[in-house]
Design a protein that fits this description.
- The protein is mostly helical and 328 residues long.
- The chain has two domains: 219 residues, Up-down Bundle (Alpha-lytic protease prodomain-like), CATH 1.20.1510.10; 85 residues, 2-Layer Sandwich (Alpha-Beta Plaits), CATH 3.30.70.1350.
- Helix content is 64%, strand content 9%.
- It has nine helices and three strands.
- It has a three-stranded mixed β-sheet.
- The chain is elongated and about 90 Å long.
- 34% of the residues are buried.
């Protein structure tokens, strides 16, 4: 089952315990780090290649692609650091752990990409008004082929390998490479068009291809970082998921209370990075009775174990109350 903002990567058997779950998460952490490290090195290589071809071709579109690759490279360095931080437990400085850094980084990434796209569009409009910009289209076509194949390949690889990881970092990185692949494919198409125009009576139109392409690409790419920005901001401000998703989680939790007499359950949900936090108020009825606090602990452990078997990303706090006003 897939949810609004996280994937259920639960275990296959109800007999698996917390040790197996933590081993599974540890494996995912290593796989995540491997994917992000690979992305980091490839991004660095793409920066060098794109800058080299931008100089050779005098193309603003390839220079924009190089700038985008440079952003991806810098962001990859930060992503690797954050991937290590979010695995740390809470401490005296961060009482709720480091997972809030993950959506903050993704929000920062999206803002940088948005700024780059806006600048590219603005500079292209200026170039267009100045009469266009000629480039070495033959060399540009070769770059387009290499960059398109490379970007799409790494994006697909990260998406496939990271399919079962609870990692927004890998997900956003995969989207970043996909955007770069679309950008490179568009550059390839535009250079083919410009090269063809130079062989016809319409060769005076060829210099306009590069700036027009940048305007189209910069505008078309904007919805993706805006979407990432919105989702990351929702996590930073602790916005609750839609009611339909909350209902699914609440229904699943109530199934863990089969032996607990209660009147109502109030579940509050938030997500930051890979952690899904549940604050649960169980309003017990008159039939609820315990002899020791240890019995409450047993109920909490049972509920948390069953919920984490459903999704290991879940972290819970459970409160037992009688007065419904205390749950407000």
């Amino acid at each position: 089952m897939k949810h609004y903002f996280f994937q259920n990567i639960g275990v296959e058997s109800a007999h698996l315990n917390f040790i197996v779950i933590y081993m599974d998460i540890g494996f995912h952490h290593l796989e995540e780090k491997r994917l992000l490290t690979l992305s980091f090195y490839i991004a660095g290589a793409f920066v060098i290649v794109a800058l080299g071809f931008a100089i050779l071709t005098s193309s603003g579109a390839i220079l924009f692609d190089a700038a985008y690759s440079l952003i991806a490279f810098v962001m990859s360095m930060l992503t690797l650091k954050v991937a290590n931080l979010v695995q740390r437990p809470d401490d005296d400085r961060f009482h709720f752990g480091y997972t809030a850094i993950e959506p903050t980084l993704n929000m920062f990434k999206s803002l940088i990409i948005i700024a780059t796209c806006v600048y590219a569009v603005a500079s292209s409009v200026q170039s267009l008004l100045a009469g266009g910009h000629a480039a070495e289209y033959g060399i540009g076509m070769f770059y387009g082929v290499v960059a398109t194949v490379g970007c799409f390949s790494i994006s697909i690889y990260m998406r496939v390998k990271g399919k079962h990881l609870v990692s927004d970092l890998v997900k956003v990185d995969s989207h970043t490479w996909m955007i770069d692949g679309v950008l490179s494919a568009s550059i390839l198409f535009a250079f083919i068009l410009a090269y063809a125009l130079e062989l016809t009576e319409y060769k005076t139109l060829a210099p306009y291809v590069d700036p027009v392409l940048l305007i189209i690409l910069g505008s078309a790419m904007l919805p993706v970082p805006f979407k990432i920005l919105r989702e990351s901001l929702n996590e930073v401000i602790n916005k609750a998921p839609p009611e339909s998703i909350s209902a699914v989680i609440e229904k699943k939790f109530k199934k863990t209370l089969a032996d607990v007499p209660y009147e109502h359950v109030e579940v509050r949900i938030s997500k930051r990075g890979r952690d899904v936090y549940l604050l649960v108020h169980i309003i017990v009825d008159d039939a609820f009775s315990i002899a020791t606090i240890s019995e409450l602990d047993e109920i909490r452990l049972k509920c948390e174990a069953e919920m984490r078997e459903w999704d290991p990303a879940i972290i819970m706090d459970i409160l037992f109350i009688k007065d419904p006003e205390l749950a407000e």
